[in-house]
Design brief:
about 350 residues, 2 domains, three-stranded antiparallel beta sheet, eight-stranded mixed beta barrel, single chain, L,D-transpeptidase catalytic domain-like, Muramoyl-pentapeptide Carboxypeptidase, domain 1, alpha+beta, globular
């Protein structure tokens, strides 16, 4: 049960007994945050912030602002010893910090979404950390080489060079109907100006109905039919600016037909929740990733990469050394700045794990 598992992790002495725990720095960092939250829980946790006011902004005066300050002080977002009912500049900065940790729009306004996250009970957050600690038990020891990590609930790709974070970028992952699969692979190919071989499911559900309505559907979408499998046409989209894969894709051969790719739908990267794709992972800065992967080959300059992306002719480049790709699912973790992050359980995986890990749910 949750109480027993929590006690086994945070009881006196448990934090120094590392021999039976994973050799993974993230596990230790998250466990230390769990210990802090356990102390908050034992001190009574926090009460929901209630008010007739719908949102709170800088300059306002309201009794609920006192509760907001107290709540953010508990989690380390607000450090001033100020119990006034005035929404100050310092409180706005603290709210932005909290919103950053939750992957929310950093507007410094305590409104519906921010209040909803702040009002989640302490037990909910502790359970969330316990679930992710269990996931981290199965994560391999941290690599000292180059690798890529996609965290689905965070909607981010993290690029590591020799074991250290180099840069991150926004991604779009699979929708609720087309979940991106959790797995590992080895990135082997960069494909510039790619064709898109349209999956059979999309051909059946979108392309064929489109053809029936419009005889010029194939041409208008820059597609071509390369053959037939029974009554189903084999369709591919030609390279170009409007290609669904954009101007470059990155392949790590796998049985799920999942890969990283550019996209012409750039506006989606401005959303805070980015679960829109058919399962593959769309990249916010694909040229930057191509430059990183090919940086040790001096012939692949930024100019040459840009030219290949806009050539309109498919070109495969095989990497001299494959790079591990990890597609993971973490809704609680400690980031490179030492801040505890939480994210929504976008696919419901936490809920399923909780049903197995804890009784009475």
């Amino acid at each position: 049960d949750m109480v027993g598992l929590l006690d086994s992790l945070v009881k006196p002495g448990a934090s120094t007994k590392e021999t039976y725990e994973p050799v993974n720095r993230q596990y230790t960092l998250l466990k230390n945050e769990l210990i802090k939250y356990s102390r908050i829980q034992k001190d009574g946790g926090w009460e929901p912030i209630t008010s007739l006011q719908k949102k709170f902004t800088r300059g306002m005066t309201d009794s609920a602002v006192v509760a907001i300050k107290q709540r953010l002080r508990m989690t380390g977002d607000y450090t001033l010893d100020d119990s006034s009912s005035i929404f100050t500049d310092s409180l706005e900065a603290a709210v932005k910090k909290m919103q950053r940790r939750y992957g929310m729009k950093e507007d410094g306004i305590v409104g519906g979404g921010t209040l909803r996250e702040m009002n989640q009970p302490i037990d909910f957050r502790i359970r969330q950390m316990l679930i992710n600690l269990e996931r981290l038990r199965w994560v391999p020891e941290e690599l000292s080489s180059d690798y890529l990590l996609v965290n689905i609930p965070q909607f981010k790709l993290h690029v590591y060079e020799q074991g250290k974070l180099n840069f991150s970028m926004n991604v779009v992952v699979g929708s609720l109907q087309h979940n991106t699969v959790i797995f590992t692979g080895d990135l082997k190919y960069v494909v510039f100006s790619p064709y898109w071989n349209v999956p059979v499911s999309i051909v059946k559900n979108e392309v064929m109905p489109g053809i029936r309505k419009n005889k010029n559907y194939i041409a208008s979408h820059n597609m071509e039919i390369t053959g037939y499998s029974g009554n189903i046409p084999n369709v591919r989209q030609k390279p170009g600016a409007n290609n669904s894969l954009g101007k470059v894709k990155f392949l790590f051969p796998n049985s799920y037909n999942i890969y990283l790719h550019d996209t012409p739908a750039k506006s989606l990267f401005g959303e805070t929740s980015r679960a829109f794709s058919h399962g593959c992972i769309r990249l916010g800065e694909p040229a930057k990733l191509a430059d990183f992967l090919l940086r040790k080959d001096s012939s692949w300059t930024k100019e040459r990469i840009n030219k290949a992306m806009n050539l309109g002719k498919e070109q495969y480049v095989t990497l001299a050394k494959t790079i591990p790709v990890f597609i993971g699912y973490f809704t609680a973790w400690v980031d490179s700045n030492g801040l505890l992050n939480f994210r929504d359980d976008v696919y419901g995986h936490d809920k399923k794990m909780a049903e197995k890990m804890f009784t009475g749910l």
